[in-house]
Amino acid sequence: MDTLKTPYIEKKPSSLRYYQEGPPESHDSINMEEWSLKVYLPDESVPIHVKFDELKKISTITENRRVVCVCNWSIRRNWTGILLSDLLDYLGINTTRYYPYYLKQLSLGTEKGQYDSTISLEHSLENRAMLVWAIDGEPLTLEEGYPLRLVDFSLYRYKGVKCLSELHFTKEFDQGFWESKAGYSKEGKIKPKRYRIVDLQEHRFIDGTGEVTDF
Known about the structure:
There is one protein chain. By secondary structure, this protein is mainly beta. The protein has one domain (about 50-205): Sulfite Oxidase, Chain A, domain 2 (Alpha-Beta Complex), CATH 3.90.420. The protein is about 10% helix and about 30% strand. The protein is built from four helices and twelve strands. It has helices spanning about 50-55, 85-90, 120-125, 175-180; strands at about 35-40, 50, 60-70, 75-85, 100-105, 115-120, 130-135, 140, 150, 165-170, 195, 200-205. The two termini are about 20 Å apart. Pfam families: Oxidored_molyb.
């Protein structure tokens, strides 16, 4: 039995609505030889470029952690990538200096649109946010955000932009795509209530205090 397979994954509700306005048409539509994650520091017009192969050489980890969707379901899976803090350390960015800042994420985008989301830099570092490129030992699907997605497990999933392309350090806490489109909160904090726990095939109460670690 594959120990990386998430139990009852075939029963996970679809998340395609989350990305219906402008996903890449296929994996092949993204040229990974040209793709890079662009990191923009304050007052710098030229970004730092990090190629995909370079990202994977920093400090790769696989962690079993739970995500919660604003659509009232949750699932625990095996996420492979690097900690956001390790990326910033690798780039020589003094995170303490930028604690008052926010981190704005932008998707690669297509002719149909581009996604954005803004989160607290300090909060994401404290909560060990990850830049993820694989789940359960397999590369991200288009639905999950191929080739790269930032995941803060203490927030709802809509706060992590799929098909991540750019990270901007900013003092502005902008309203993101899904806050504007669906009226979701800018903070993205998980609300205390009962959720469908896909991997356990039952409903459980989540207290809304942050990342779910007790089951």
